[in-house]
Structures are given as structure tokens and as C-alpha cells.
Amino acid sequence: LGHNDLDQGEKLAKINPLKKIPAFQTDTGLNLFESFVIISYLEDRFGVGNNSSSSSSMATGTMPRLMLDTAEDRAFVQLLVRIHDIYISSPNCSQ
């Protein structure tokens, strides 16, 4: 998607019906939105130790982990992401 797609919203709406960023389309055409969902997908698909059969150079399993190592760190980041997704960028945001 280009910048003009964000202004018009038509192409963005095909990936994210809320017409908001982030919006991500996988190489198989699966449309994902919500920061946590996208990061989780990227970690599962391309993270260290992944045995993906894709020919993509990113699918070699050599990409550094996107998720943090400790449960406490992961929980804190998930909290920040949820606050952003629900309260800051939500169409129901009262700000």
C-alpha cells in the first residue's frame, strides 16, 4: 500500500476493514491487523527455529526473535500494545 491508499482508504479497507494502520497481508493473501496479531504471525513464521518450507529468504529461521525472553517483559509489551489498539487508535476512542 502507498500513502495515497491511506488517504482514499479503499485498498486499506480490503486488508483492515477498520481502515486503520497497522494492516498486513501475508504472502498467501491472509489479511491481518492488530499489532499483536501481526507480530505474533511474524515471530511464528520467520522467527529463530522456525522450520518453514517457504523459499523466502526470511523463512530460514535466522531472523532474531521479535518477542521478548521473559514472561514479565512480554506481558508489559502486550499491555502497551493492547492499550494502543483499544484505547488510543480505536474508533471508539473518546480523545
Would you summarize the structure shown here?
Strands 1-2 form a two-stranded antiparallel sheet.
3D structure, described in words:
With 95 residues, this protein is mainly α. A hairpin with a 5-residue loop joins strand 1 and strand 2. A two-stranded antiparallel ribbon has the order 1-2. The mean pLDDT is 76. The protein has helices spanning 3-8, 10-15, 35-46, 71-88, and strands spanning 23-25, 31-33.
List keywords for this structure.
mainly alpha; 95 residues; 2 strands; two-stranded antiparallel ribbon
* N-to-C series of helices and strands: HHEEHH
Number of helices: 4
Query: What is the overall silhouette?
Result: flat
- Beta-strand share of residues: 5-15%
Distance between the termini: 27 Å
Mean pLDDT: 76
* Unreliable runs: none
| Helix/strand structural class | mainly alpha
Largest sheet, order of strands side by side? Answer: 1-2
* Spatial extent as radius of gyration: 15 Å
Largest β sheet strand count, sense and barrel closure: 2 strands, antiparallel
Task: Please estimate the helix content.
Answer: 40-55%
Kindly state the number of beta strands.
Answer: 2
